[in-house]
Hints:
Elements: H1 6-22, H2 26-29, E1 42-47, H3 51-61, E2 67-74, E3 85-89, H4 96-107, E4 117-122, H5 126-129, H6 139-152, H7 156-165, H8 173-178, E5 182-188, H9 215-221, H10 227-234, E6 246-251, H11 253-266, E7 270-273, H12 282-299, E8 307-313, H13 329-341, E9 347-353, E10 365-368, H14 372-378, H15 383-388, H16 392-399, E11 402-403, E12 414-420
Parallel strand pairs: 1-2, 1-4, 2-3, 4-5, 5-6, 7-8
Antiparallel strand pairs: 8-12, 9-10, 9-12, 10-11
Amino acid sequence: MLDGTRDGAKGFLTDMFGAAVRSADPRSVLEGFLPEKPKGRCVVVGAGKAAALMAAALEDAWPDVPLEGTVVTRYGHSVPTRRIEVLEAAHPVPDAASEQAARRILARLHGLTPDDLVLALISGGGSALLALPADGLTLEDKMIVNRLLLASGAGINDMNRVRRRLSAIKGGRLALAARPARLVTLAISDVPGDDPRAIASGPTVFDPEAADDLGDLTRRLGPDLPEAARRLLTSPQPASEPFEADYRLIATPQMALEAAASHARKAGVTPLLLGDALEGEAREAGILMAGIARSVRRHGHPAPAPLLLLSGGETTVTIGAGKPGRGGRNTEFLLSLAVALKGEAGVYALAGDTDGIDGTEDAAGAFVAPDTLARAHGMGLDPAAFLAGHDSYTLFDRLGDLLRTGPTLTNVNDIRAILIA
């Protein structure tokens, strides 16, 4: 049972986050989604932060199948495998290794027959890790576009519309390369709504927007957008024939939220799930959630305490002019929440990215308590100034309240939890 102290609340929220992450561990869930074993070859391809662990889980599940193939994951996210090759590349901005991995994966698909099976292991982060530029683009062009996307405040769906258009492997092109073999995709969703087109920019599913004019997004990316990319985004593209995909979601943000909710119930706390697809500016979300928490404290609405407000999805941080500090969307959300709560008694919060990395930092997220602002002021720190400078990581680091898990080797997007004791 929850004991109501600061340490008790922090322990409860940290354990809850761990339960959510474990629910998306490929070693626990992948085997139940495997198809019938093939008559011919079984070629494994994949990309994402969970790709290496998914490959290892597949090897364990199918010890009697002669597996071959290649997956690519983020630097530092590899695990030992016996039969499937694991490569590493950069994320969130691709590098030369990202392009080389994409070419290596396509080469694995040559010479297949209808008796063969291609298993595609796809998870969040796969878009940057499979960076094969479309005709007329260079890798440097793609790197510039990725940086502009990350700074633009664009939502994940708009980001993936751009990435699909500028790629020679995403937007269903990997599926076309696998023909005539049977293709089955096993995916871990890290996107609001679990849209297969958005998970790693949909390398194995048909893209119905392939011929759309994306000029609205070029204006958002600004004058530094490479001209070759601008032409591809604004010129009509030939559309391929639609095709069906055998696409199996083995872990999703909703599943992780339900695991977190189960953890809360066991501690005697009522969970209230607010949705797995919340988007928008991180600091605005913090203000909104602070208002809900105050309503629970003062009026018992939308439900009485003890209550755990749970939400998932992916907020954004729009940098704007000026050099930003350090931090990701989860720490920015939490700092905005803390500033808006103004030390409200009995309200604690934790938010983190389930892959263990909030943006580009070494923390998954952070923890907030009623004494967060007072402790910061006692150290001569101004939380509002840190928020204005997008420097939330630095503040929570100084307070000792960062959530450091290390790479979790899975990714079902963010978990935001507000405990009203």
